[in-house]
Amino acid sequence: MPVSGTPEPFPVVELWSDADFRAVIKPIGVDVELTFAGQVIHRLDTPVSGVLLLGKTSRALEAGSALFANRGVHKVYWALVAKPLPSVSGRLRHWLEHRQKGNKTFAHKLAAKGRLDSWLDYQVLAQGDRYTLYEIVLGTGRTHQIRAQLAAAGSPVKGDLKYGAKRSNPGGGISLLARSLTFNHPFTEKLIHLEAPAPEGDALWAALAHAGEASPPAGQTV
């Protein structure tokens, strides 16, 4: 059954579409819940850009939500940070606690009530004079997970004032890109790979992303 959504207030760049799903590039500053009401399968933070999968039918909303809930989607992000992590590649593991007051997630080293076991894998894709580009593969999908874990490791995302960055980015976004989603289509079983380009109009992204595209991907190869 088709679902209805509110008209989108800006031209949407569509990456892929079929009878049940569509994938778009979410721009920085767009609230997913408000802009794509009735189509939301998963969420991206407002200051983040990248691949967003939406449902066009009620069965797509149900099946798509189950895919994400059951970790059936391989999620890759790109992040720019000013202070590199100690290792070229590795895993960050924390117990995350999200607090509604302030809408902020806190990363802890020890388990406790209300904290969720969370992990991600990272590797350096490119190194500039002042910033490092990381590819990040999410093992879990917690609220603000990448932002909170990188900050806890001493390497907040560029422009992310909420999590410790020293200065904001022009336009108020942060340098975190939902780079790709890969999953088996729940109805056709076809392997779907969706990939977003680096944000346009940013010389730093352009330079490091070009170098990063020549590097082997982290984690699962698709």
Summarize the structure.
This protein has 222 residues and is α+β, with helices and mostly antiparallel strands. It is built from 4 helices and 10 strands. It is 15% helix and 33% strand.
What is the topology?
Layout: E1 14-17, E2 21-26, H1 32-35, E3 49-55, H2 58-69, E4 74-81, E5 89-99, E6 104-108, E7 116-127, E8 132-138, H3 145-152, E9 176-184, E10 191-195, H4 203-212
Parallel strand pairs: 3-9
Antiparallel strand pairs: 1-2, 2-3, 4-8, 4-9, 5-6, 5-7, 7-8, 9-10
Written account of the structure:
Strands 1, 2, 3, 4, 5, 6, 7, 8, 9 and 10 form a ten-stranded mixed β-sheet that branches. It contains four helices and ten strands; from the N terminus they run ββαβαβββββαββα. It starts with 13 loop residues before the first strand and ends in a 10-residue tail after the last helix. The chain has one domain (14-212): 2-Layer Sandwich (Pseudouridine synthase), CATH 3.30.2350. With 222 residues, it is α+β, with helices and mostly antiparallel strands. It is 15% helix and 33% strand.
Q: Notable features of this structure?
A:
222 residues; alpha+beta; Pseudouridine synthase; ten-stranded mixed beta sheet; 4 helices; disordered C terminus
